[in-house]
Amino acid sequence: MNNMVNVNPQNLQQVLGETSQQKLVLLSFYSAQSPECQSQAAILEKIASQYGEHLLVATLDCDIEQQLAAQLAQQIGLQTLPTLVFLKDSAPVDMLAGAQTEQQVRDVLA
Questions:
Q1: Is the separation of the CB atoms in 74 and 29 below 8 Å?
Q2: Can you name the residues that pair with 83 across neighbouring β-strands?
Q3: Where is the Thioredoxin domain (predicted)?
Q4: Contact by Cβ (8 Å): 75, 59
Q5: CATH architecture of 4-109
Q6: 84 phi/psi in degrees, rounded to 5
């Protein structure tokens, strides 16, 4: 199974609902126009490949999916991009706002 998925209105319930019942979901809110988001994307790809058995990295392009991003941002209190939200059993268990290093993400996963 692919350990990374782009979130959209069609797969939102499956990813954030069903999948988060089985493994941790790392939801990344990002903008392709942001250099910080671009550098973080490479870190997330690496983490997805190493933690694939226990983790799904879900990415939400806030430029493309503006309405969905606004709805989710309001629900979780998102204030900046990039932001990483860790979900288990359909609920947020941790959140990292702003650009993160690989070690900072790994610390949450430990």
A1: no
A2: 29, 97
A3: 1-110
A4: no
A5: 3-Layer(aba) Sandwich (3.40)
A6: -110, 130
pTM of the model as a whole: 0.93
Break the chain into its structural domains and give their ranges.
4-109
Contact 40, 100 (CB under 8 A): yes
> What's the pLDDT at 52?
84
pLDDT score, position 56 = 96
Please state, rounded to an integer, the average pLDDT across all residues of the chain: 94
Q: What Cα–Cα distance (Å) separates residue 69 from each residue in 20, 30, 34?
A: 18, 9, 16
Model confidence over 54-102: pLDDT tens digits? 999 999 999 999 999 999 999 989 999 999 999 999 999 999 999 999 9
Burial 22-45 (b: 16+ CB within 10 A, else e): ebbbbbbbbbeebeebeebbebbe
